[in-house]
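Incident log, entry 3
Record: Thiolase (413 residues)
Problem: checksum mismatch between cached and fresh output.
Input:
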Amino acid sequence: MDRIKQIASHLTGSGGVSALQYQSPDDVVITMAIRSPLCKARKGGFKDARTDELMLEMFKRTIEMSKIDPSLVNDICVGNVLSSAAAYEARAAALAAGFPITTPVQVINRFCSSGLMAVTSIANSIRAGQIEIGLAVGVESMSFNPDNGGPEQSELLSCNAQSADCAKPMGWTSENVAEDFGVSRDEQDAFAALSFQRAEHAQKSGFFDKEIVPFEVFQKDPRTGERSPTLVTKDDGIRYGTTKESLSKIRSAFPQWGMGATTGGNASQITDGAASILLMTRRKAQELGLEILAKHVTTAVVGVPPRIMGVGQPSICDPAALENCDITKEDVDLYEINEAFASQYAYSVKTLGIPVDKVNVNGGAIAFGHPLDEYLLIATGLNELKRRQGKVLVTSMCIGTGMGAAGVFVRDQ
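Fresh output:
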């Protein structure tokens, strides 16, 4: 990264955002960023759709929207957290969708950052000259693969306090953040209400129309049990008319821990969904005549104490990513951060000292839901960055077991 900064600074005569906007044929660029609707697990539009069926539909929509021959894709990386059969499902779904047998597939899992890690893995392979075109996909069915928490640990691990904390419930980590850093219930409800209100406004205004691709999935008739195809076109977890006052009436989800300030209203919903990002060199994109949405600049990953895993995003990983790019928080036009819990959302915004009107401007996981593999941030962020004619997007997320990740993207002007 230092070498990249030196070259860009020399060619542009400056550093910062100007250097990042320098266009090289070797840039790793994004030519497609799409997502499915996000649907409430066990209740929403995808409740009867298996993980492999969501993968299949995402691959089909990718081939349809990418504007390239699928045989040109040199590698596919799929982010998935919960499915124990993900490696089988991803390869089979890609073949069934129309990718040739010559296109390899891998699966990556770093919990909530798995979608960003898939993008990073493909981007790094392109940067290293190993491939020219690659596809990063994120898919999660929490309906078919519920998150049952950490596994039982061997006593060889659990005797270590930090190791034991890795298996603790995420609600416990939310309460730890709230108590350790003084994030009140009132403050959490206020941030959560803002997420719902922004998402409601964005959905009603049609802001998501360019990033969402309709998904045809099977839904089960509750009377007969028969499955029939249904077209799902929009997010179904946004609760219209949500206010801080209405959220304040919801009882504590974890009264046994901390201040008991985390509730079903100020924490992310459990959700099903998918997203797809097509990456290649700028040289290849220009050769194929494709529109370039943005380039991937860098990804930073950090570790934090597991008991307060929420502080990994973005208060620690974002500064690391910005330092890699030689830019400051003031240079960033939009932040898309994972709202796993309002406690860490509020903490992160305050700690970074960034204006709330730059963060999750169309709502976040509290309103849409959190498919565990937080892949939608890039598609949503790039769509909004283009709408606002902004330059720099940062996406970030906290990660179970105590980590954080952030990615930096620059829109083509």
